[in-house]
């Protein structure tokens, strides 16, 4: 794969030079993890930098992502908001506006927010408010005609809750707002659209690299099973990395005996969703100016369900609530491990000689690789009662434009130097960060249970038994009725 990164490391170094700090410490205590971090390690004064156990040749970057980001930012309307206080409400500000600057991404986020605030002459204040409380308070503010916040940064799975209370502006109607800009993730706005309304949008300013899922593999186990791991990497760049290929490797590993074939830890509940979406399927088909409909049938989903049945039938697989699975992988006991990218930091000094791959496709003829973002991945939305929607529209555009590309570059660069074991894994990480995918069902299923019952809840329940056809027809009818009722083409 042609490596596209260029001066990002130098750009990050310039930014980081402005902060008081020394060196990096990679945190790799897999026995005491409690919460999801940024996956890039922690830093501290006087710390000694951990290095990969195998060497690699540092790649040559090709594109100045920071310059591209600045060009996007400079293309936005010029505004001076005269020092106005701009409020952002979110249940979690950790990635967007961190309180500390211990990690590379947190420093760049703080720097980004400062650049946008200076350019638009605003004072940005970010408040943490529980998602359910936010819905209630926004609803009360609208009822009383009072101000709540300028901008919402909300978990993807709660978009439906806000829609159910009619509290979100149709983001496409905001002045000077263009969702076709490259610094927005197109599928995020498609999958938060129904009828004539688009409720939210994501970009690099909202999506932490830690939220991407990936496939980790043990090079030694695969080699002992007769698998050429270099060819495995090549299959990704050739578009031939599929779930069937992963299953064939698992079958080869089973002939060795003594190893788990594939495991999951943090993503165990979501494995059916990840397989379904990465295989090219959509729970819901939707977009602007259309009524959402269930996007699959029992027949079109059969190949996906067959993959899931095989995965769950494998006696050497550990896919159901497997505490410590990442630790076992780290110790060299598992061939494949499905997890979020933040798990990389726990594997920095692992005994296992590991590599990294994206989630496989369903078939070679499928399009791009796709990584379904988790329900708590955040998206921007604008309160419906905002008195001047131009302001939040331009600010959120500026935040996404000012984040585009180079923040992910810094994440790749950090992990290249401190975590990953080979150049191919660097390429894979680069590719994975271009695969963000979304689904309407996850955005609205929490508020409209009929949608969830016909999509991800049903697929999860039928994953091992492969009996999707037994319940699907009636649940599809009910879900489509609900979507016609609440996402119709009326204004």
Brief characterization of the structure:
By secondary structure, this protein is of the alpha/beta class. The protein has helices at residues 8-16, 65-74, 104-120, 131-144, 159-164, 186-190, 219-224, 229-237, 243-256, 271-278, 302-313, 325-330, 390-401, 406-418, 423-432, 440-444, 449-453, 456-462, 468-486, and strands at residues 84-90, 122-128, 151-155, 193-194, 197-198, 213-218, 260-264, 284-285, 293-294, 334-340, 354-357, 371-372, 378-381, 436-437.
Features:
alpha/beta, D-Maltodextrin-Binding Protein, domain 2, four-stranded mixed β-sheet
Textual characterization of the structure:
The chain is of the alpha/beta class and 491 residues long. It has two domains: 63-208 and 374-410 and 426-436, D-Maltodextrin-Binding Protein, domain 2; 213-372 and 448-486, 3-Layer(aba) Sandwich (D-Maltodextrin-Binding Protein, domain 2). Helices cover 38% and strands 12% of the residues. The radius of gyration is 23 Å and the shape is globular. It starts with 7 loop residues before the first helix and ends in a 5-residue tail after the last helix.
């Amino acid at each position: 794969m042609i490596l596209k990164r260029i001066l990002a490391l130098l750009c990050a170094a310039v930014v980081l030079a402005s902060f008081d700090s020394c060196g990096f410490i990679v945190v790799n205590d897999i026995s005491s993890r409690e919460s999801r971090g940024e996956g890039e390690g922690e830093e501290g004064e006087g710390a000694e930098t951990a290095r990969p156990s195998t060497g690699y040749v540092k790649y040559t970057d090709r594109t100045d992502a920071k310059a591209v980001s600045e060009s996007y930012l400079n293309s936005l309307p010029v505004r001076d908001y005269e020092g106005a206080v701009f409020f952002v409400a979110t249940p979690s500000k950790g990635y967007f506006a961190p309180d500390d600057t211990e990690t590379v991404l947190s420093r760049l986020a703080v720097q980004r927010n400062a650049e946008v605030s200076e350019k638009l002459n605003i004072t940005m204040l970010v408040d943490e408010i529980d998602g359910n409380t936010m819905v209630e308070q926004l609803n009360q503010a609208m009822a009383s005609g009072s101000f709540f916040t300028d901008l919402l940064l909300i978990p993807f799975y709660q978009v439906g809750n806000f829609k159910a209370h009619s509290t979100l502006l149709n983001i496409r109607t905001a002045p000077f707002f263009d969702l076709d800009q490259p610094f927005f993730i197109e599928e995020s706005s498609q999958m938060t659209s129904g009828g004539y309304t688009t409720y939210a949008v994501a970009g690099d300013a909202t999506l932490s690299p830690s939220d991407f899922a990936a496939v980790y593999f043990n090079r030694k186990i695969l080699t002992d099973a007769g698998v050429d791991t270099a060819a495995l990497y090549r299959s990704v760049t050739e578009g031939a990395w599929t779930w069937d290929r992963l299953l064939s490797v698992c079958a080869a590993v089973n002939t060795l005996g003594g190893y788990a074939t594939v495991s999951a830890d943090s993503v165990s509940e979501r494995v059916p969703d990840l397989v379904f979406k990465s295989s090219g399927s959509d729970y819901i088909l939707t977009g602007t100016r259309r009524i959402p409909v269930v996007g699959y049938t029992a027949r079109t989903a059969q190949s996906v369900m067959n993959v899931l049945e095989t995965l769950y039938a494998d006696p050497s697989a550990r896919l159901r609530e497997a505490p410590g699975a990442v630790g076992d992988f780290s110790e060299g006991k598992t061939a494949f491990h499905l997890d979020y990218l933040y798990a990389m930091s726990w594997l920095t000094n692992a005994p296992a000689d590991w590599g990294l791959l994206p989630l496989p496709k369903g078939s070679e003829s499928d399009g791009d690789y796709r990584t379904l973002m988790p329900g708590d991945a955040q998206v921007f939305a604008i309160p419906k009662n905002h008195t001047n929607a131009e302001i939040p529209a331009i600010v959120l555009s500026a935040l996404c434009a000012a984040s585009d590309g180079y923040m992910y570059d810094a994440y790749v660069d950090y992990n290249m130097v401190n975590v990953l074991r080979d150049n191919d894994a660097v390429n894979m990480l680069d590719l994975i960060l271009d695969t963000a995918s979304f689904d309407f069902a996850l955005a609205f299923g929490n508020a409209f249970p009929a949608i969830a019952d016909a999509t991800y809840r049903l697929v999860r329940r039928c994953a091992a038994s492969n009996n999707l056809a037994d319940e699907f027809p009636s649940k599809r009818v009910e879900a489509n009725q609900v979507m016609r009722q609440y996402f119709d083409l009326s204004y």
